[in-house]
Each structure stands twice: as structure tokens, then as C-alpha cells.
Amino acid sequence: MKLTTPLTNETVEKLHAGDRVEITGTIYVGRDAAHKRLVEALGRGEELPMDMTGQIIYYMGPSPTKPGNVIGSAGPTTSGRMDKFAPRLMEIGLKGMIGKGLRAQPVKDAMKKYKAVYFAATGGAAALIAQRIKKAKVIAYEELGAEALQKLEVEDFPVIVVNDMYGGDAYAEGKKQYARK
Amino acid sequence: MREIQASQITETVARLAIEANHFLGEDVVAALNKARAIEESPQGKDVLDQLLKNVEIAKQGAFPLCQDTGLAVVVVELGQEVHLVGGNLNEAIHAGVRKGYTDGYLRKSMVGQPFSQRVNTRDNTPATIHTDVVPGDKVKIIVMPKGGGCENMSALGMLKPADGRQGVLDFVTNVIDKAGSNPCPPTIVGVGIGGSADQAMWLAKKSLLRPVGQPNPEEEYAALERDLLERINNLGIGPMGLGGRITSLAAHVLVTPCHIASMPVGVNVQCHSARYKEAVL
Q1: Could you give the ipTM of this predicted complex?
Q2: Does B213 have pLDDT greater than 90?
Q3: pLDDT at B190 over 90
Q4: Residue A7 belongs to domain with CATH number
Q5: Residue A33 included in any domain
Q6: Integer Cα distance of B193 and B157 in angstroms
Q7: Distance between CA A175 and CA B14 in Å, rounded?
């Protein structure tokens, strides 16, 4: 299935755990330190460097860009470290998260409540994934280096739906199917 | 005494850091190909195909294998007949990491203080250095960039002696089960048994420096590795946790004597981007 950003409730409603999706359009990049700053800024009632409505955040910290390239290697980081911050961002309109690894129950609950989706990209396929990124720009927190907030333009960016808004979980379902006693 | 310049250490560490991040070992590539042939799950096959393609792109030099180019673990075997001149060993290694990570466009992933300030050191130093003094007049250097995602799944179990072999199997399998998709499976599971708490953890990591799937030379431990791998792969976690036959490519075990009261079991998880390169000066 092909998707373009930003995402709407109607799009999120169509997505189910295990679906393969290719995303085209703008996505944002932020990991640990950027999440902490975003949520702290919300706590102080400050305006964020981006409008969160309908957006996707990719949990990623790229390697430095070599001359002539758009970005360095750019695979997903472990999402669980953003669990503490993700529900607050969904509350203000975040519709999608891309990362890898398990999410905590409060995050899955918030996905149901606010209609959001969690996608996985292939961890460690970072050089391959970088080929789908057409533009990259740091938009805030530049001093954080690899952890700065970035805006990307992506084309047919390959992900798989792990957690949908109905409680579906591709990790749990896949494991159940292949487990042996 | 044979003299070696500290600058040679620096240059070697820098070169190895860049090479390790671009050229996956042939043993790992062979293990991924074997996994691709065995894997039954369509998602798992697709993931393994992507990883093999990724290896080819990284080889060309413009993009490292993974954006997480690691904490620089540097393992040194220093011949006792070597006289290092023009600097000290640890500083020469840190300088090598600084140079390799800067010149090679590798990610700087270290923060100077872990629990509050967390300010990036901007050159990926300090390295984590393990030095052993050995007979001879050579210096062997291994640079092992270790990703944060898999390192975070490490665990130490101070098991009871009565827990025995079954206790080891249960503990390690449980660690990998709980880790699920987090450490980027298919993984290599390093296990250190015995010693003190710190020794067990170090052996777990050191076991990852053996070619993937090469069994422990002692049959009892090789059998434990086979049983561990079978238990782990029966979990069904699969490549990237999406379900499948191959959760781990190998389990490596190292064993050392321990106290009558103890049975420490260290687990160090290595993602499929199992990177290290070595050189002998």
C-alpha cells in the first residue's frame, strides 16, 4: 500500500498490523534528546518547531552526510526509549511513528485513543534506507548533533505496520505463528 | 625491546573503525545467506534480503552499514616486549577513534555524562579499552563498533550453582525472549559463564569476536551453544521480530572458573551488523 503524508484519521483507520506500506512525502526525524525537548517545551506552553498535526516522526539519528549525498546512513533506532514521550505527542496530533522494537502498553493505548499507527523500518538496513530519502534539513536543536530534529522528504519509504489503532500487533502475531515448543 | 610509535596505534585504530563500519565480515555474510535459505516466513526472508543488499551498498564506501556506528570497543593484546614510544597507549587509541569517526563520517554517539547532562563529546571518544599483556613483540588491535540498541539488551544473572546447565539455558533464552525485536534480530548471542560479575560480562562480549557459528572447541560448551541456539530460534521472534525461524545466527559461549558460591552468567547481544576488524603491528 502506498501512503502520502500528512496522515488523516481515515488513512490510519485503513492500516492493519502486518501491512507493508511505502510512504512518500514529508516525515520528521527525532530521537531521545529531541523528544525530551519537545515535551519539555509543551510543558512550558511554548510553540513547537513544527506543527504535529497528521505528522509522522521517524526515530532515527543519521550518520554524518558525506559530500554529495543527501544524508548519511539512516536506519531506525529502538522505539521503546521514546515511550515516555510518545503519548503526549499523539495528544497534539502525531499520527505515525517509525522505529523498531517493542512499544509499552500506554503507547498502544494512546494509539487507540488518538488514532495513530506504529511502523517498523528494517533495523540495520541503514545504507539501503538512505537511498529513499530525497531531502534532509535540520529544523531545530542543531546542537544535539545526530539527535537534532530534522525534516525529510522521502519517496516510497518502506515500512511495515506493527501496531495499528485496533490493538493489532505484528510482533506478537508473527512470534505466535512461528514459535515451537 | 621492539619500538612501536604511538602514532601507528592511532592510524591503525582510525583505519579499523572505518573498515569495520563498511565491510561486514565474510562469516557474518555467510551466516545471513544461510539464514535466508532456512527462513520460512515471507517477512523474515524479505528482511534478510534487505540486509544482504545493505551489505553491498555499505561496501561501496559512501554509507556505513548502520547509522549507529557504535561505541568504539577496542581490544588490545600488547606484547610484553613492545616499547611504545611517542605517547601513551590509551591516548593513542582515543586519538584513533577521534580520527576514524571524524574522517570517516561515522556517527558520534557518546555523551560525556550519562544520567543528567548527556552532552555529546562530538568525536565518539572515549573508547572502551580492554588491554591484555601477552608474550611476544607484537601488538594486536581489534576495533569493534558496538551498537546501542543491542548493547541495551545485555543482562547479568548471578545464578545459583544448583541451577546448573538448565539454569543457563533458561536464563539466556528468557533474556532473548524479552528483548524481542529490540536488538535487531537475527542476533548473535554472546554468553560468558563463570568468573566474577564483571568477568562474565566481558567474556560474553569477547565471545562475539569468534567467527560467527564457529563452535567452542570444547564439546560440552559447543553442545550448550547448539542447545541455546535451538531454544532461542524456537521462540519464533524471527528477523526484525516479525516472526520466523531465525532469531539468532549463533550462540557463543565462553567459560571460566568461579567461586564455590557463584554461577555468574553474562549475556551480551550482538545485532546482525556484527562488526569488528583487527590488525597486528
Answers
A1: 0.96
A2: no
A3: yes
A4: 3.20.130.10
A5: yes
A6: 10
A7: 41
CA B106 to each of CA A96, B22, B26, B223: distance values in angstroms, whole numbers, following the listed order? 28, 10, 22, 39
Q: What confidence tens digit (pLDDT) does each residue in B225-265 have?
A: 999 999 999 999 999 999 999 999 999 999 999 999 999 99
Burial of B65 (0-12, 13-18, 19+ CB in 10 A): buried
How many C-alpha atoms does A174 have within 13 Å on its Cβ side? 28
Q: Which residue of A has its CA nearest to B247?
A: A175
* Cα–Cα dist B103/A58, whole Å: 27
In B75-84, which positions are buried (b, 16+ CB within 10 angstroms) versus exposed (e)?
bbbbbeebeb
Q: What are the phi and psi torsion angles at A80 (to 5°)?
A: -55, -25
* Mutation target among A32, A66, A73 for the B interface, most CBs of B within 10 A: A73
**Catalytic residue flag (residue A35):** yes
Residue B124: predicted pLDDT: 98
At A141-166, the pLDDT tens digits run 999 999 999 999 999 999 999 999 99
Q: Longest C-alpha distance within chain A, in Å? A: 53
Distance of CA A164 to the CA centre of its chain: 13
* Count of CB pairs separated by less than 8 Å, A with B: 163
What are the boundaries of each domain within chain B?
A: 2-20+65-146, 149-274
The C-alpha atoms of residue A90 and residue A52 are separated, in whole angstroms, by 8
Strands (E), chain A: 2-4, 20-29, 56-58, 96-99, 117-120, 133-140, 149-163
Candidate list A11, A19, A21, A35, residue with the active-site label: A35
Instruction: Please give the residue range of the domain that contains residue A16.
Output: 2-155
Is residue B199 within 8 Å of residue B263, measured between CB atoms? no
Distances (CA, A) of A55 to A12, A119, B122: 12, 13, 30
